[in-house]
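quick one before i forget lol
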Amino acid sequence: MQFSGFQPNHAAIVGALTACAFLGALDQGMWIHAYVDRNGMELDKLLGTGLIDMYAKCGCIEMACCVFNETKNRDVFAFTSLISGLENHGQSARAFELFARMQNEGVVPNEVTFICILNACSRMGLVDEGLRIFSNMSKVYGIEPGVQHYGCLVDLLGRAGMLEDAKKLVREMPLEPDSYVLGALLNACRMHGDVELGNETGQSLAKRSLDRDGVHVLLPNMYASVNQWEGVVKVREEMEDKKVRKVPGCSLIEVDG
């Protein structure tokens, strides 16, 4: 674009920043930030959110905070982007502080904001606070919880060892539980060694054809945690019969630019 003599506008800059965030291309993202400063482009809410998201996803959360403070007319997307970044960096307490600041400034949270803050509650073990926030979604903000919000709540209860409450929530929720919800319950069963509920949850996943590779990894880990090795063998055999293969993880690092 620049070689052709065209000067990128805010939308083009944000598109490039989104690509940097997806790839973890910090150097290129910083170059774009320098370009913005060099050309005196206003750091409005659109451009600011793009930079916050890029820095947060590239591991530079403090730089994301600096950009956030410099951004003019911050909206729900700018706040949510940084709340998500803080939560993903294990700084849930700061995410809560920002959530409170957001409300004090009169910015109304959206569905994604609540997913981020409920995840923060789960990581910090704040059961009562999480339940209060979940309740306020519909009562205060008029937002009906979606499947992901229920999944966050199941994860919150499960991590806290409240497996019966988590099980009741899954059974009584007005939406059909998906792999995220049932996976959260299954993971809680693994954490706390509840094999019976874990088997029940695994069967629910199978009935819904949601028993993908991750489920077949959680189940044997759950059996192994309570020394039920026959269960481990059984799941491994089922994986062979169904030709299920765990998709290996991958990562990308940049060396010397």
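fyi The chain has a mean pLDDT of 88.
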